[in-house]
Amino acid sequence: MSSSHSLLFLSLLTLSLYTTTSATTTTTLDVAAAVQTTLDLLNPTSFQQQADKILPQNTSSLKFTIHPRSSVHVSHNHHDYGSLTLARLARDSVRVNSIVTKLDLAISGTNKSEMKPDKSMMLKPEDLSTPITSGISQGSGEYFARVGLGTPPQLYYMVIDTGSDVNWLQCQPCNDCYQQTDPIFRPSASSSYNELTCSAQQCAALDITACRMNHCLYQVSYGDGSFTVGKLVTETVTFGRSGSVPKVALGCGNDNEGLFVGAAGLLALGGGTLSLPSQIKATSFSYCLVNRDSKTASTLDFNSAAPPNSVTAPLLRNPRIKTYLYVGLTGISVGGRPLSIPPSIFAVDDSGRGGAIVDSGTAVTRLQTQAYNALRDAFTKQARSLKPTTGFSLFDTCFDLSSLRRVAVPTVAFNFAGGKTLSLKPENYLIPVDSRGKFCLAFAPTDSPLSIIGNVQHQGTRVGYDLRKLIVSFTPHNC
Question: Which of 141, 160, 150, 228 is nearest to 183 (CA)?
């Protein structure tokens, strides 16, 4: 090919790139509304629990309500929004470390049955009252599902977690139980409660198990030394007013130590055989997370079809670990232009490292340092009209918007395999960290090869997982 033809080809290719991506370079951030939300959150009379009021009486799918942590468990440790944000980010860092550690153990082939709770790492009870350490051990635990358990069903708030495979809740008698919002589950009050034997198939599926008097015992340990231990049982799970499923295996924890506050336990939505979607043989599930500071609730749905206007991407599997839900992320755009990030950065390599997961429990999206730097640099270059200010905790790119009510900011979008693009709302990537108008770019770098799309980036978007067709769907404005 001649040099003139090469130049013509490159010109046409460049033109094609710009015309096939979004022509929108900026979007509007409502600064005043975001700041007012932070002020409302600190008002103790502003929240009302929604229970199951939003669930329909008759539905073809099974549904739970989902509530932001702040509307269920109101902490009195935070007198300003800045200290609350620091606590959330501290919980988030614990969460991310736990995910990376779990993946590293799977790749290295470590025998999890040899792992024991390390009580030297445990935080003291008095630490639970400090802003930095309050929260559920595995990380942020910012969203609770309202779950019915037992016969007759009793309602419990349980953390939803796409990064876990074992469902569990606190049970009487308690050798050591943390504070929760609801009464602790009493097995004697349920006619459907059944303890599993050591020969049960569900017992064999546990990573860490033991046998006592032919009762199957489970143990789930977390990255900060917290753990839950008890009997593996089956119970009836009730989905609001939309139906119930019997004989779901879950841990009935009698010893639950560490940073657990508010929730009765954890609802596992990962890809393992003991997760709730696997046990009820769900063909799909989806959730929509309302704003973390919202008074409202949304739903966690099973076996419901994705809305027709969804942005779709491949749902990928890592052969080294079943738990995590990987998505076919290929790149990121800022201001309508794709960043110069090699697609290999978001791919799983032959060793099982790398890739991008969608995680309901991680708040802030983590990107490999090369990808994060490209995003940050492009955003700050296009946001020169915004007044920069000092960083905040894990955020290094922040702006002083205190003098503004509304402002134009560069657009940010995720690009997926298959050519689909998910444009983020400005409140999904530029978030307030105090009530005085300080906003930060809600992404963070990581040294790990694993990228994590966190819940700040998909609040207000229904995220669906078609487990049969292996598709992840994103539907904005569908809570």
Answer: 150
Instruction: Report which residue type is found at 13.
Output: L
User: Whose CA is closest to 466, among 278, 275, 286?
Assistant: 286
DSSP for 415-440, written as a single string: EETTS-EEEPPGGGTEEESSSSSEEE
Kindly give, in sequence order, each residue whose CB lies less than 8 Å from that of residue 215, ignoring residues fewer than 6 positions away: 195, 196, 197, 198, 231
Model pTM?
A: 0.86
Query: 265-315, pLDDT tens digit by residue?
Result: 999 999 999 999 999 999 999 999 998 888 888 999 999 988 888 999 999
CA 155 vs. chain centroid, Å, equals 22
User: Could you count the other beta carbons within 10 Å of the beta carbon of residue 223?
Assistant: 19
- Collapse the DSSP code of 217 into the 3-class scheme (helix H, G, I; strand E, B; otherwise coil) and give the result: strand
Checking if the pLDDT of 142 tops 80, the result is: no
| Pairwise CA distance, residues 195 & 215, whole Å | 7
| E-only strand ranges, 341-385 | 356-358, 365-368
- 402-to-379, 387, 449 alpha-carbon distances in Å: 19, 10, 36
Reported confidence tier of residue 54, pLDDT bands at 50, 70, 90: low
Residue 28 phi, psi (nearest 5)? -105, 130
Supply the residues annotated as catalytic: 161, 359
Tokens describing residue 105: 């153990």
Distance of alpha carbon 263 from the chain centroid: 15
Q: How far apart are CA 180 and CA 228, in angstroms?
A: 14
Tokens of 453: 């799309």
Exposure on the CB side of residue 410, measured as CA atoms within 13 A: 22
Contact (Cβ atoms closer than 8 angstroms) between residue 315 and residue 471: yes
pLDDT at 22 over 90: no
Other CB atoms within 10 A of residue 63 CB: 23
What are the helix and strand counts (H, E) for the chain? 7, 30
Name the residue among 193, 77, 68 with its Cα closest to residue 142: 68
What three-state secondary structure class fits 180?
Answer: strand
Burial call 108-125: b when 16+ CB within 10 Å, e when fewer: eeeeeeeeebeeeebbee
Structure tokens at 244: 């119930």
Site of tokens 């900026």: 26
Contacts of 214 (CB under 8 A, 6+ apart): 197, 198
**Three-state secondary structure call for residue 344:** helix
Query: For residue 320, with 0-12 CB atoms within 10 Å meaning exposed, 13-18 middle and 19 or more buried, which class applies?
Result: middle
SS3 129: helix
